[in-house]
Amino acid sequence: MTRDEFDAELRPSLAADLLAALVEVAGVPTLLVACDVDGTISPIVDRPADAVVDPGALVTLAALATMPSTSVALVSGRAFIELKAMTDLGPEVVLVGSHGAEHGDYAAVEPTRALALEQVIREVRDITDGVPGVVIEEKATGVAVHVRLASRADADRVTAEVVDGPSARAGVRTTYGKEVVELSVVDADKGRALDRLREETGADAVLFVGDDVTDEAAFARLTSSDVGIKVGPGETSARFRVESTASVTALLTQLAAARAVQVTS
User: Could you read off the pLDDT of 94-116 as tens digits, one per residue?
Assistant: First the structure.
């Protein structure tokens, strides 16, 4: 496929400015492609355990990771072990879990912090025990409280009790997402995770795609050479926006096509 043929094929499906940005970033010598998972390449569902990543997105990310001077990472709030199970990707794709606290299978939790985590989890269990629709997700570095399925009254009450209780403990970091509040004993966020990935890969430019408020920390780290893409509605500092996870799969497929043209020309 020639460059002109590629441009013509993509033009009907992408806004002109996003198309131009994709083609430009695909041409840098060393590229890092990083994506959130839930709400980005996996549609949001009521129960986190029911989430399924779009197979097309996984195939395309794996293909990008095999291209010369191209690195791929998934940067998620999910625990590393869950992220690995739901994506089933090879080692060429770096998995970053717990908003950056778990980089690969490494999670830095000091003994004193481990004790604090145990206490936080106990308190969260006490608050949420028996509340219909509330789901807790225990991780190596923290615990997430999902209230999407709870009644509005229960969701508000549980969130308030978590924030006023275990969240207020010294050394506990609180992150808010879509119908979820997460407590962590490790000071990490997706922005710092992206900084680390950029340094490790030596990337000349980064493309980052995300949908949640937790992804804003990563968008804030992007430079004028990078491309940030927000999925769905809501305020954002990302330069571009697409409507849905299906749009992300198409976007990644198109990026891979552009990258293939660039690295083989």
Answer: 999 988 888 865 565 666 678 88
Rounded Cα distance between 146 and 43, Å, is 16
The rounded distance, in Å, linking the Cα atoms of 194 and 209 is 12
- Per-residue pLDDT at 56: 94
3-state secondary structure of 63: helix
Indicate if 55 and 83 belong to the same structural domain: yes
DSSP state at residue 61: H
Query: Is 66 buried (19+), middle (13-18) or exposed (0-12) by CB count in 10 A?
Result: exposed
DSSP H helices in the chain: 3-10, 16-26, 55-65, 80-87, 111-128, 152-164, 190-201, 216-219, 245-264
Tell me, yes or no, if 215 is annotated catalytic: no
Least confident residue range of 5-9, 15-19, 33-37, 44-48:
5-9
Q: What is the CATH number of the domain that holds 137?
A: 3.30.70.1020
pLDDT, tens digit, for every residue of 43-68? 988 888 899 999 999 999 999 999 99
Query: Which one from 4, 7, 17, 36 is the annotated catalytic residue?
Result: 36
Domain count, the chain: 2
Predicted structure pTM score: 0.82
Residue in 63, 72, 29, 34 with CA at minimum distance from that of residue 254: 63
Domain of 161 in residue numbering reads as 109-184
* 102 DSSP assignment: E
Q: pLDDT band at residue 13, thresholds of 50, 70 and 90? A: low
